[in-house]
Write a structure and sequence with these properties.
The chain has 263 residues and is mainly beta. Helices cover 0% and strands 62% of the residues. It is built from no helices and 21 strands. The strands form 3 sheets. Strands 1-2-3-4-5-6-7-8-9-10-11-12-13 form a 13-stranded antiparallel beta sheet, with no helix packed on it.
Length: 263
Amino acid sequence: MAQRTIRYKNGDYYKGEVNRHMLAHGKGVMTYNNGSVYDGEFKNGIRFGAGTYKSADGDEYIGSFRNDIPEGYGRASYIDGSRYEGEWHHGGINGKGVFTYTSGDSFEGHFKEGIRDGEGVYVCADGSRILQRYVDGKLAFEDGGGLPVITIVDECKRYGYFHHFVCRFVAKVGEFRYKDMQVLEYDPWDCDSIFERTFTITEVTSDGVSFIYKRQISEAEERIERVTRGREGAFENTETKIGGMELIDFNYRQEASLSVSCE
């Protein structure tokens, strides 16, 4: 296929393969009048196939193009340090992928028009993993008709390992349980009963929530607390020692803490 260098009236510049109509066709490099550059495959004058597009601002996309726009699978990196890898449709982030934010946190799941939509896993920079479900960028269970939204962060160290649990939900009077050594974020009012931790809300008002928190470890401990909107309560659990386990003769220490915030 013939190689040509073409300068366009609008200031764009192309160097690469062309067809018999002198349109970019095959592999080539297009430098646009705004300073952006595309290096990749063309079909009848438009971007079509694999290529790399770098904007004048420094954003970069590497992946598949169809009809002059990103389509299929690709990777993007942005000047603020964030990046995305996954599916692209209609020229934007649509489908399944992983978006990594400047904080180091990332979300692996479904996106619609660049925002989280559907189920996915939010991974914090410290390695904590949170199962989430979004609708149009909002956590699906955040619409509580004005009721407070509770976030529970339960941190526990046992056997020398550190575990981090997160639950987030609209506060309603009732009880739910969540599992030890697992990170969950879901609507507890719709889930099946599980075990290990018990959190019972006894009163919900416009300014706060009263609750009973019970740890089911060696000896059950029950605490009655209240947290108000805009403030966070942090509650420490006493250290626990257990010994004389079958086939294992040692003591281990568990250190646990709970923080509850109310929005």
